[in-house]
Every structure is written in structure tokens, then in C-alpha cells.
Amino acid sequence: MPDKPGRVSVEERLFSLVLALIATEIGLTKAEILSTVQGYRQRYAVGGDNASLERQFERDKDDIRELGIPLETVEPPDDPGSNHHLRYRIPKGLYELPADVSFSADELMLLKLAATVWREGSLSGESRRALTKLNSLGVDSTDPVLGYSPTLRVRDASFEPLSKAMDRGQIVAFQYLKPGEGTPRRRRVAPQAVVLHEGRWHLFGTDEDVQATRTFLLSRIVGPVVSVPGATFVPGGAGKGQEALAELDALWRANLAEIAVEPGSDAAVRLSKRQAVEQGRAPGESTVALHYTDLDILADELAGYGPEVLVRSPPALRAAVLARLVRVRDAHADPQAPAGAAPSDRAEEGTR
User: What pLDDT, in 10s, does the model give residues 44-54?
Assistant: First the structure.
């Protein structure tokens, strides 16, 4: 059964091309590459139209050169200037590591691990190129690294389509679910920057429906990000990212929560690392002041500590934590219990 088109990954196709061009002394013509190399041959049409495949090969040549691999073009001596009979090769001597440089098996594994850590989002292209070059040094991309491969994930599926739309000046649409709302609402946005602040990704852009700048939390984007047909904008440049971060920093400084924590508890250890101020309270209790950018995110975190934390201010945060604790209590309540019973002391502890 013939191979199905599209099954070969970018990494495998580039690696196969590098191996093929290193293995030949005289080089390969474009036709020989497209008809024999893994990743091309599956889509090659003998005597047919291979224009799209040739364009793919041209892009792959650029990727290989970006790796620092010396891809040479050799003209036939009997037909100089003929593109049809050009040959491509990678001189093995130029591509090999210097004689005084070598890697142990463990070092190669660590190099591969460093590349696989950044497999997603804005660094996915660099990751692919790094893995291709490491593979050529003898590291099999399917080999396990200490039995696992930790990944630093972009965490939000909307990251890459937003980044691409921003680069191309395309207005996008997506469903956005704000805290406290039961259903998401469609937003049309001209994305100006995607920034990381306090460990979370944010989209900074112009809300086309209100013609005003807004910041969106990527984790609250529901469903796919799609481009709006025919709708474009002029990107604002690198300064938009700094503008977004400056606004988020100002919001973070303006919001301050006062949290009493139980000494020695998990909450005390974790929250004290982020404290703005710490001062003694009653015996056996200490207070931590925390800056924050999003009240609902902080409320989610504090509710998870249960009785280890007591929210003193602001009142809106205290109410948000209490609401979460009550929902947890109600979800585990005895169905025979009277409806509308008052919250238990344990549920109220997080907001005393």
C-alpha cells in the first residue's frame, strides 16, 4: 500500500533531506530529491504537476541553511547555467564537527532535551531546526530522555494563531468568557501584542466593536481563534508589547490584598514568596500583602488553601473566595439537608 500524503512530519522530512544530501558525493537533482527523499516522494507525481512540492523544497533549502548547514549548488560542467540539471549536496567535511569537539551520549541527550522543551508556540520553528541538527549528530528523535520529556507548554491553544494574525495584520474573532458570565461573547480584535505577565499569557489589542484597547487573558478564550475575512490592520510594532506590560504592571501595583495565613502552612510558604508586606497579627497568625492583576484568578488560588488563609481585604476578593468555598460545600452537601442552609464555619474560614 503506498504511503499516504501528509504523514511525514517537518522534522522527519528535513532530516531525511539532510541525510540524502550528505550521503551523495556528486549531489542530487531536484527531480531525484522529490522522487526519492522521504517526505517528498509520497506526494511526487511522475510526469505530473509538482509545482507545490518544488516550492516546499525551496522553503526547506532555506530552513537547512538557517541551521548553518552548508548546502551547495553544483552546476553541470557540460550545461552551465541550466537550472534543470542543478545538483544539490552537503559537503560532509564542512558539516562535521571540528575534530576537537565531541559530545558524550549523555550530553547529546541533554542537548536533545533542551530542544524538545521548547516544542510549542513561538519557539516551535527553532525547536524543529535544533532537533534536525541534533538528529544528524546521531540522536534519534524517538529515543526517550531519562524516561520522560518535560515540556514548557504555551498552555493556550490560542497563542499561535494570535501570534500569526498579529504578524500578518489580520483581525481575529474568538469567544471570550468573562468571570461571572454564563456564556462566552464573541469578540473581534486587532491583536497588537501577546505578552507573558505574572506567569500568564495576555492578548493586548483593539476591540473592534468598541474601538478601544483591551487586554484579554488567553486562558479565557473559548474555542478557536479565526481570522475575519477581509479585515486587516497595521501592526503597531514592538512598542505595543512594552505598552501592554506597562499597563499590566500598573494594574498589579494598584491592586493589593491583605491575607492572614496560618504560620507554617503550605499557604504561608507559597504566598510569603510573593508578599509585598508582611507584619505580625494575633499570636499564631501572620498577614501577607499581595499585589495582583486579576481578582478572580487570585480568588481561585486562595480558595484552594481552605482554612489556611483568611481574606481581610478587599471585600470583593473576600466575597469571591467565599462564593467558591460555598460552591464546593454545596457540591458535596447531603441531598437530604435543608435547602438554603447557612455556610458552614469551614466554608467561612477562608474569608473571616
Answer: 888 888 888 88
pLDDT at 207: 92
C-alpha cell at 51: 509545482
Cell numbers representing residue 122 in the block: 513561538
Contact predicate 154/161, CB 8 Å: no
- CB–CB of 71/21 below 8 Å? yes
Least confident of 10-24, 49-63, 136-150, 217-231: 136-150
The DSSP letter of residue 96 is S
Q: How far apart are CA 268 and CA 298, in angstroms?
A: 15
| Cell (9 digits) for 102 | 565531541
Cell readout for 348 is 467561612
- With b for 16 or more beta-carbon neighbours within 10 A and e for fewer, the 79-96 pattern comes to eeeeeeebbbbbeeeebe
Give 195-263 as a DSSP string: EEETTEEEEEEEETTTTEEEEEEGGGEEEEEEEEEEEE-----THHHHHHHHHHHHHHHH-EEEEEE-T
Q: Is the peptide bond before 315 cis (omega within 30 degrees of 0)?
A: no
Ordered by start, the domain boundaries in the chain are: 10-95, 102-153, 159-247, 255-349
Q: Which residues pair with 171 in a beta bridge?
A: none
Residue carrying C-alpha cell 497588537: 192
pTM of the model: 0.53
Rounded to an integer, the average pLDDT of 137-154 is 43
> Length of the chain, please?
352
Give ∠ CA 7-52-75 in degrees, rounded to 5.
110
Residue 259 CA to residue 256 CA, distance in Å, equals: 10
- CATH dotted code for 159-247: 2.30.30
Q: Assess contact for 29 and 92: CB atoms under 8 A.
A: no
Distance CA 149, CA 132 (A): 17
We find that the CATH architecture of domain 10-95 is Orthogonal Bundle (1.10)
Per the CB < 8 A criterion, the answer to whether 192 and 240 are in contact is yes
H/E stretch holding 134 reads helix 124-136
